[in-house]
What we know:
InterPro entries: Aminoacid_DH-like_N_sf, Malic_enzyme_CS, Malic_N_dom, Malic_N_dom_sf, Malic_NAD-bd, Malic_OxRdtase, NAD(P)-bd_dom_sf. This protein is of the alpha/beta class.
Amino acid sequence: MPRQFQFRTVDGVETVQIAVRGRQVLARPMLNFGPGYTLDERAALGLRGLLPPAVNTLTEQVRRVYQQFRGQPDDLSRYVFLNQLQDLNEILYYRLVADHLEEMLPIIYTPTVGEAIQKFSSTFDRPRGIYLSIDDAAGMDEALAAHGQGPEDVDLVVVTDSEGILGIGDQGVGGIRIAVGKLAVYTTAAGIHPLRGIPVVLDVGTDNLDLLNDPGYLGARHARVRGERYDAFVAQFADAVRRHFPHALLHWEDFGADNAHRILAAYRDEQCSFNDDIQGTAAVVAAAALAAVRAKGERLADQRIVVHGAGTAGVGVADLMRDIMVQEGLSEKEAESRFWGLGSRGLLHTGAPMRAFQERYARPVEEVSGWDGAGRYDLAEVVRQVRPTVLVGTSAQPGSFTEAIVRDMAAGCDRPVIMPLSNPTSRSEAVPADLLRWTDGRALIATGSPFAPVEQGGTTFEIAQANNALVFPGIGLGAVAVRATRVTDRMIAAAAQAVAERTSAGRLGAPVLPSMRQLRAVSAAVAIRVAEAAVEEGVATRELEHPLQDIHELMWQPVYPTVEVVDHIDEPSARTTEPGREA
Length: 583
Ligand SMILES: NC(=O)c1ccc[n+]([C@@H]2O[C@H](COP(=O)([O-])OP(=O)(O)OC[C@H]3O[C@@H](n4cnc5c(N)ncnc54)[C@H](O)[C@@H]3O)[C@@H](O)[C@H]2O)c1
Ligand SMILES: O=C(O)C[C@H](O)C(=O)O
Ligand SMILES: [Mg+2]
């Protein structure tokens, strides 16, 4: 099918060539500027009479839709409203989100996206992204082609199989919305062009009985396919991405713990890909931990770290912190001995069963011989015995950082670092106001979901949001900017470093991470460091001549482009703004 339109940027000016007319223009979210079209443009595009007479600026349109947004009764309705706006006029949607970032991010992303995923089938209207069903594996190539993007057109593919959505588990086909949400954050934070990212759900069935028994459920209605058939489907998908979109970075999101680690290990050396829950989370949490221990005048290597929930995120976080301790001078074994991990059966130790990816954090069984618990040691016992200085929560067990546990921890150190990272808000291991109360304001806190500042003892405590949203957009942009062929550990460590450098947690009450308000600047800083690391690692296929300028120019802004009305679009569609020279 001939192309209907094409965006290009020449000398910093974005233009869209449009080869369709009339209602076909208004039917495309990236072309529908609504009353934003001038009268001349309306005449040239066959839009006369299809729009009300007034011509609006983008600012006027934002004002109107913001009022409509404010009129929504609850967060889920706000999500649905924004979702519909994205499918109506996508540039206006991104402008609205950019202008009201702090208010909108918790709607289009965590925590509200969690509820929207759970209610996917009842709130579904217009499909967005690609739905790949294991029952139609043979149709995968056709499905990817049907999306309409050519090999040069795609920078990013975000994929989930929906088994481990946030902390709410298996959500079947509704998981597409986490991929949509992550891409919206890529665009908002790092200026990835809205057309250059594709959200994908791999629907392999669901083990969620509520979904299987819901007559309105829109996904494949059978139990999750596992084993060889699942692996073959994932392999077919990874290969199809390489063939259809050879320059795309593949972002794995919210897979179940075993598959997440296995898939990352299988593909990280095969194609440009990373796992956000393992590596993105690790980078942001390491940055928060570094800022917190610096505020105490200590090193990471000096800490005793308990990871409550040694799953996808927990083990990723431990691995990166271990690597930082090694840089600080510890041996790998010494560094690993600074961690105590807990799974659903309590402390990981060599006398109890565990999963392969957890084994390096198993404590020797001799260490626990005198402990209370007969082989199963819960968080309270671990905290009592270990006296941790850092407590990480990636368990999705709400309230598991109890008053008794937190007071016990705080009795053993001056500034306990406590990070309840589980999302959405309903899964948080503790809420900041409680943590500050139980520790008399001594705790250094980071949470996964957003929390309002807390007033205590005359101090306002701003709560750092340690959400991978602070790093994955920059990791993506950095990798895309230099067309990296892999995402290496050093690129992830560089992302953590870039965030840590932009944090100063010295003052009492200051957050241990930059605010989400600074998302765009942080993402640009992360992208520059990630791109540089990619070049140093030899995985970049082009270099940036002026990193700051080049990254800045690559970041798409939500403004209406100059319209060029044409009869047809010339192929090929190679990107016209080259960020650097071929290496
Ligand atoms: N802040 C962030 O950026 C961020 C990033 C990724 C994940 N998360 C959150 O972390 C949580 C876990 O996500 P995940 O992807 O790692 O899931 P996961 O299923 O891979 O890991 C959860 C782990 O918790 C363990 N667990 C379960 N019950 C437990 C209990 N009672 N005590 C101790 N451990 C227990 C499980 O054994 C598992 O190892 C989710 O809520 C998710 O939203 C946050
Ligand atoms: O999606 C988020 O908010 C962060 C993270 O990827 C998660 O799974 O919780
Ligand atoms: Mg996730």
